[in-house]
Each structure stands twice: as structure tokens, then as C-alpha cells.
Amino acid sequence: MKIDSSLPLEYSTEENRLKIFGFWIFLGAEIMLFATLFTVYFVLANRTGNGPTGSEIFELTPVLFETFLLLTSSFTIGLGIHAMRLGNKKAMMTFFITTLVLGLGFLGIEIFEFITYVHEGATITTSAFLSALMTLLGTHGAHVTFGLFWGIAILIQVAKRGLNAQTTNKAFIFSLYWHFLDVVWIFIFSFVYLKGLIS
Amino acid sequence: MSMEEIFHPMQEPMILMAAISIVVGAIVVVAGLTYFKKWGYFYKNWLSTVDHKKIGIMYIAVALLMLFRGGVDALLMRAQTAVPNNGLLDAQHYNEIFTTHGLVMILFMAMPFVIGLMNIVIPLQIGARDVAFPRLNAISFWLFAAGCGLLNLSFIVGGSPDAGWTAYFPLASTEFSPTVGNNYYSLALQLSGLGTLMTGVNFITTIIKMRAPGMKLMKMPMFTWSILITNVIIVFAFPVLTVALALMMLDRQFGTQFFTMANGGMDMLWANLFWVWGHPEVYIVILPAFGIFSEIIATFARKNLYGYKSMVMSMVVISLLSFLVWAHHFYTMGHGVMVNGVFSITTMAIAVPTGVKMFNWLLTMRHGKISFTTPMLYALGFIPIFTIGGVTGVMLAMASADYQYHNTMFLVAHFHYVLIPGTVFGVLAGYHFWWPKMFGFRLNEKLGKLGFWLIAISFNVTFFPLFILGLDGYARRMYTYSESTGYGPLNMLSFIGALGLAAGFLVIVYNIFYSWKNMPRNEKADVWDGRSLEWATHSPVPEYNFAVVPTVTQLDEFWFAKKEGRDITAGKFEKIHMPNNSAAPFWMSGFFFLAAFFAVFSAWIPAIISLLGVFGFMIARSFEKDHGRYISVEEIMETEKRLRGDK
To answer: Average model confidence (pLDDT) for chain A?
Structure first.
């Protein structure tokens, strides 16, 4: 295998570079996916039928906690990649585990939030607004859930096989995915919750 | 749902017959594989392959099969409407048939034909040894095959979708379409759509990152350009379909309110989402055809492609405009004058870059020494016939005039006049052109030309009358009409044309058997005196494509090197890294298929268990240590000697 030592390990082979580039393209498709879901939400946001409106059900406190957890997790995974580039396996794993724990916390609050909505009689079938809201949030939440399992699989491989061209490549691509979910959340926080609370 | 309901469609004699023929066909294939002891060969060389050329061949095989499935639907429609008050099909059966005809022809015939050709040709044209992600490529194919199988299963088990290929709400809702037909629609399209999206990611990466040394973007062959742009459209359009189909499933099976008529739902949201994907989709199937025609016209006119830069620019402009015209599909649905005006203008604007391409093709042929081969005949036939489709398209683009044409046969005639000479002629031209590259022998020219003339003439006999019928007010999707309307004679003429089309397609398939038996083997590498890199390697292509990766300094390097007597494939052999075969994509898509099948009947627990199987394969893949294998220099020398000795 040709190793180009002037590049970080995750970029070191041709195959690795292709995978990182391909994943960026895939993220382009993901942007379109969420853009479509946001569009659907904006179209239907005021079409509440007989159900509650956004300002009636949104609560700022849990959402602020969610935001705090996810934004911090994006920071810790950045630190994890930094540690990985320094070749510090232990620090890298610690930061990745922290990231996943924060992600799990985020997911816990989101599930709690959904249960609260359902108890208040705001289900996915109540109105077009709630269908769009829960599909958008649910798709993001499903991405985070998938990310948790993905992250665990990578951690096991790093623990067993150490930091090599393959494991660093996977960890780096996973970090791109995780940052992307964070960016989507910032849009959800601003244009779903904050906007919903204002009106 | 009871067993009786599930197998309800089989009570129709025609569907029962089709079901029996499928079962008999399957038994013949299984028995044949067993008798000739080919199971091992089939499994190792085809089901497990990650070779882009074999994947491409499988795509085209499925496409041809689906051409006949969709073709039979078309013949039934034309037979039903051939005479007034015909009772061959009832209204429900007719609804199912025009729905599946559209779905099958666009998503399971045109798409796989285009993707098959791009699989075979693109790595060869850019001098690469495979695509960027060979395993992902196999997953793309098997996901597509799973979706295709699922949709075809629908007419035997549970009932076909019957709300048109556009599945407009509220017609497609459970209230008005209570059978599982439209569940099949959302899930089958979802599977094959995922496969297509992965193809998009794969080929953008391949073309951007894996070109032969020296092949700058503006030195790429035109077909490669068209495929690059097509895949960019795929990556940006298909996620919209993914969302639309998911919302459709939620509405139909989970009671959400996206497209409902109460509780805030908005039925027109579906139409918008569908066409935001659907119109770019039209260009996904037409741009590759433009690329194929560019290659073929330059090759058989023996001239450089006229206006290379304007060709590239016009495709980029078409790809951008393709996202800005979707509302022209429903001018009559009441979004005001301003919106209609804007979409009218963007739609008409597409005629400009398309016209630029037309003139470029004509000027490429000017003063050329044209040889009238089968692929060239398709390219020549395309230009005038497609122009009729284009001009009627501009007529339809005028919003105010569209109130007259909307949902009449005029529209049906128009889109067949663009899709058949555009896409179908394009893929058939490419199929005849690159066949020797795939198999090492040519298709018989006499039969090829006979097929072309049958198709070209019958096509016009079938579809030109529909323009006139449409202007006379004959609405599309009507299963019958009364004699007093006077629509009878032209419909009969159209039916006769359809029979001719069927004969043409039969000739094309017969040509495979005829040529396989009678055409000389060991076709030379440069079959047609070609211009781009795929003609620099042997026919059929060895699995590693190029023993030595060619270096490129200009557009059509191979052509100029040939004239100057240089050999661009000369050089020292080195061992070649290749990916390992794997059956995982096949089995993984099998689990996808099961999950979707159970989901159609809302059997959620088995569906989730099947999905766990999919995730199992993903985890196994993640932990797998697979670094591929190397082909040794000795092995390359042996293969090269064998292939060269036969030339």
C-alpha cells in the first residue's frame, strides 16, 4: 500500500481519498433530503387544522438542553479527530465516547419531548403541521440513532485494530456525518422552535 | 388482509395467464441452470460480481425484459382503444395498465438502460479500472432489481397501483385507492430510488477523481460529460423523491395528514414534490442519450464534434433549468397568472440550449463522410423526430394554450415524441454501438437496420394520430369512447403502428440470438474506427480494463494517436489491484426486498426483522477486512497475449 506521509492518515491512500470525496457527495444528497423536509414543514407549518399550533406545544427548556448537548458533541468529536491526528488513540476514544454519550442524551430528551406531545394529544396524525414537524424531527432523530450504532462500530474497530489508514478514515467520515447532523439541528432549532415560539 | 384478497387479482383470466407464464419462465430458468450445472458459475460470476461491465450487462438485460413488460401494457392499451366501446379490458384493469406502463418504462426500462450503458462505458472512456466504489455499485444494481421485482409482483399479489404513474393525491390516498397497489408504488420506487442515488454518488466520484492522467475536464468525451451532469441531477433530484414517497407511505399506512383534504393537509403538495423530482428525471434519461448521439455522430461522420464547449455549456444550462420548470405539469390547477408566466418562460428557455445541441450535431455532419451503420441510423432518425417533440413541447409550455392541450392525447403524443426518439433511440444506438465492446462480436447490421426502420416508421404511425386526436379533445387515460366521437379510425391506425413497434423490438431481440450464433468472434479492439479510450482496449474487455493506463493530452487522444501511428496503451505492465467479488450486495438487497414486501401489507414486525438483516450486512461489511487482490504481471501478460493473438 502506498502511504503518502505528507497527508493525515485518513487521507493517506487513494481508496481513502475516494471515500471521503464520495461521502461529501452523499452529504449533498442529505442536504437535499432535509431541504425537502424543511420545505414541507414551512408549507404546512400554519395548517394546524383542529390541532394545536407550534407556540402552544413548544417548550424552550428541553430544546435548549438538546441544542447544548448536540453542539457540545460536535465540539468533542472535533477534539477526537484532533487527537486522532496526533496519534493519541486513548484520547481519541475518550472524546468519541463522550460524543456518543452526549448524542444519547440528546436522543433521550427528544424521545421525552415526543412522549409529552402525544400526551397532550398532539400526535403525528392530528394535523398536517404535526405530521410535518414529527417527520422532520423524526428523520433527524433517526439519523442520530443510526450515528450512535455507527460510532460504536468504529470505536470497537479502533480499540481492536488501533489507528491505521482504514480506522482513521472511517472515524473521519463519521465525524463529517456528525457535524452535518449538528448543522441540521441548528436549522431545526432556529426555524422550527424559535420561529414557532415567536408566532 | 385475507388470502383471498391478496390473490384477488388472479381471478382475472389475463392476469392469471401472466402469472402462470412467469412461474413457467422461472421454472425453465431454474431447471436450465440445474441441468447445465451452471448454478456455481451463475452465483460466482454474476450474482457476486462487482465488475462494472457485468453489472452494466445485467442492468441492460433487466431493461430489455422490462421493455417487453411495459410494451405488453402498451399493446393492451392500444388494443383496448382500437375500436369504440371495446370490452377487452375493464376500467380498473385499464387504470392499472397505464399506471404500470409509465412506471415500468421510465423507472425500470429507461433508467436501467441508461445506467447499464454508463456502467459499461464510463470507466473505459476515462481510462479507469473500475468505478470508485465497486461494492456499492453492486448494491445499487441489486436494490434496483429488488424494486423492479416488487413492482412486478404487484399485479399478481395484492393488485397493481392504479392512480397513474404520477399518483396524484387525493386519488392515490387510501380513501380512493384502497388496495395495496399504491403501497407497492411507494415502496418499490423507494428501493430502486435508493439504488439510483448510490449510483449518482458513485459515478460523480468516479468521473471527478479517476480520470486517466492528462484528461482534464474539458478533454473528456461528450458521453462522459453528459453522465457527469446526469449524476449531479440524480444526487439533487432523487432525495426529493425519497421524501415524497416516504410521506406517501406515512399518509397511506400511518394516517398522517400531508396530502389529505382535511386537518390542514394539502393535496397539491404531492404534485409539487413529485414534479420537482419528476422533471429533472426527464433530463436524467435524456442527457445521456444526447451524450451517446454526440459520440456516434462524431464517430460515423469521421469528424471532430462541432462546438465542444457549447455542448458542455448547454448541458449545464439544461441541468439548471430542469429544476425550475416543474409547475408546467399543472398549469390548470389554479396557481395564478404570475406563477404560470414564470414557469412558461423557464420552460421555453430550455429550447435554447437544446437547439444549440441540435445545430452542433448537424454541423458535425456537414462535409463529413457519413457511414450509415445501425447506431448512426438511430442518431439520424432522432434529429427530425425529436424536433417534432421539442416544437410541440414549446406549444405546451404556453400556459394559456395549455388549457386546451392539458391531459389530452396531444400531451401523450408530445412526451412519446421526446422520450422515444430521445431516450429509446439513444439507448438503442448505444446498445448497438457498444455491444461488440461487451461481448466481442457485432450485432448483425441487416437485422439491426430492419429493426430501426420498423421502429422509426411504426413509431410515427402510432403516435402522430394522437396529436390530432388530442386536438380534437380526446382525453388521456379514458378506457373507452363512443363511436359518435369519431375517434375510432385514428385509434385503429395507432394500434396498427403499435403492432409494428412490437415487431421492431422483437427483431432487435431476435438479433441477439442470430448474432450470437452467426457473427464472427474475436472482434478487433477498435470496431468502428472510434475516437475515445474504450476503443483502445480489447473486445471483450479484460476484467482490469487496461493493462497499461493510457496517458491523454487532448480530446479524442485515441483518434489522433491512431492517425499519427502512436500506441497509447504501450508501456510496462505492473501488478493491478482489483476488488474482491462479494455476494453480500445480493443478499442484503434480498432482505431489503423482504422488508419492503412485508411493509406493503403493513406487516411491520416481519418488515423490521428483515430490516435488521440489512443492518446485519452493514455491520458485517464494516468489520470485514477486505483489501482486494492483485493480478500478477504474468497473468496480465498471458491475458494480453491471448486477446492480442486473436485480433
So the answer is: 94
Nearest CA in chain A to B233: A29
Which residues in chain A are contacts of B615 at CB distance < 8 A?
149
**CA angle (B337 as vertex; B333, B340 as ends), nearest 5:** 65
Are B264 and A153 in contact (CB < 8 Å)? Answer: no
Helix (H, G, I), strand (E, B) or coil at A124: coil
pLDDT score at A116 = 94
What is the rounded distance in angstroms from the CA atom of residue B54 to the CA atom of residue B540? 11
> Does residue A131 carry a pLDDT above 50?
yes
Q: Is the ipTM of this complex over 0.90?
A: yes
- All residue ranges of chain B with pLDDT < 70 are 1-5, 8-11, 645-647
pLDDT (0 to 100) of residue B646 = 47
Cell of B67: 421493455
Domains, chain A, in order of start with CATH, read: 9-198 (1.20.120.80)
Helices (H) and strands (E) in chain B, counts: 23, 2
- pLDDT at residue A93, as a whole number: 97
- Contacts of A24-28 spanning 24+ positions with Cβ under 8 A: A24/A176, A25/B200, A25/B201, A25/B204, A25/B205, A25/B235, A26/B201, A27/A176, A27/A177, A27/A180, A28/B235, A28/B236
Which residues lie across from A21 on neighbouring strands?
A: none
In chain B, which residue's Cα lies nearest the Cα of A38? B243
Residue appearing with cell numbers 460529460: B225
Stronger pLDDT, A131 or B11, i.e. the higher one: A131
Cβ within 8 Å of A, B 212-251: 235-240, 242-244, 246-247, 250
CA atoms within 13 A on the CB side of B54: 18
* CA B188 to centroid of chain Cα atoms: 16
pLDDT of residue B239: 97
Grid cell 440528546 in the structure block, residue: A106
Q: Out of A28, A49, A157, whose CB is closest to B235? A: A28
* Cα B527 to the center of its chain, rounded Å: 25
